């Protein structure tokens, strides 16, 4: 049927009545987690590792050897995000039209090759060019992973899965710091330490692209690790999401709706506000620690606890949001530690005696990575329609890229050791984040009330159960109630019709 989701074709061609028992649900979920999630974790780890090679290289002499001065180093941090910003509309189109798994594998291969080539770049122009192409290919990773998360997991499961792959930021800070520490001790007459780092990380990425190509399926409909019956169950269990699974038809009306949807610009404002601090701290983090009076190797090692805190904040924030079934409170709470940490760095004198408190302040700032995956989940769980999902995600990452471009330029090496301008601007933005979260929550509540009124006008119940956000115990209670009353409520009639969240009156917004 033209315009419909491929999942609709799969379900229409099955002759059996499809009922997903709780035992089936757990079995299918376990298969999906074991087959899909490890690949996502590996790719995101490598992306963050490859992106972080610049900051590691900065403490091993890259700035001096490449004769970087003024804003040169800041531009090397920003150029990746300029490339990502430019590429987002193209990525959105490709994610609708191309097989997701094969597209992901090609992008991983290309950025691995580019990173390897950075080893031969020895001046600002060469580094700028390779960093630009690195950004072009890496631009696809997070949007692709959001699309994969939407097509494989229920909404109640998505927040923890998004957090899992995003938490690889923290793992990168820990493992990457140790890797950079080890590679930095390799002495070569032909290669500098930072060139060895670029080459090793790049070749590792190229090798992993083969794993992605061989084992990442394009959708549940195409998954080789599921038999025909399990494919049907994997699709049916997503019905309550009201979001569809996969469609290759690009719909311009979805693009228009996404651009006119107030929600879209809420996501944009949220991610833009967190990405400015993120961009600056990611690029200048090791230099901030270095300004406390530590040498190059100790600076690298002291970044390890930063990564550990990131993991705790990311997974803890996701677990709280999943338990609470609300993103707003979790986002607001995650803004508090960075605010405290920035105040500490601004108020405590940068002396050798204050190294301990300064490090504590720096580690408190490292709670901020828990915010971005919650925004990803909040956006993706409140958007339906294949083209609209991809367009909204593209706008989200344009906002992220723009924030990451601006972030490093609020810091400059001329302001060391205090970096006051960057830290004060970051402090203001964390406060702004809390305000935007409050507005977004109220707007989503308004949309739910509007959909309830539409359902009543169509002769439906004003209140419907959102099974996509239920845990296993809640689903069991709901099933027992339905059996006890003899009722069979049809949910998700339009789930696989590839229509948008604003057009589907049965869609329930998650705030």
Automatic annotation (TrEMBL):
The chain crosses the membrane at residues 28-46, 75-96, 103-122, 128-153, 165-184, 196-216, 265-288, 300-323, 330-348, 360-379, 391-411, 423-446. It is a multi-pass membrane protein. The keyword Membrane applies. InterPro entries: MFS, MFS_trans_sf. GO terms for cellular component: membrane. Gene3D superfamilies: MFS general substrate transporter like domains. GO terms for molecular function: transmembrane transporter activity. Keywords: Membrane, Transmembrane, Transmembrane helix, Transport. Signal peptide: none annotated. It is found in: Membrane. Belongs to the major facilitator superfamily. Allantoate permease family. This is MFS general substrate transporter.
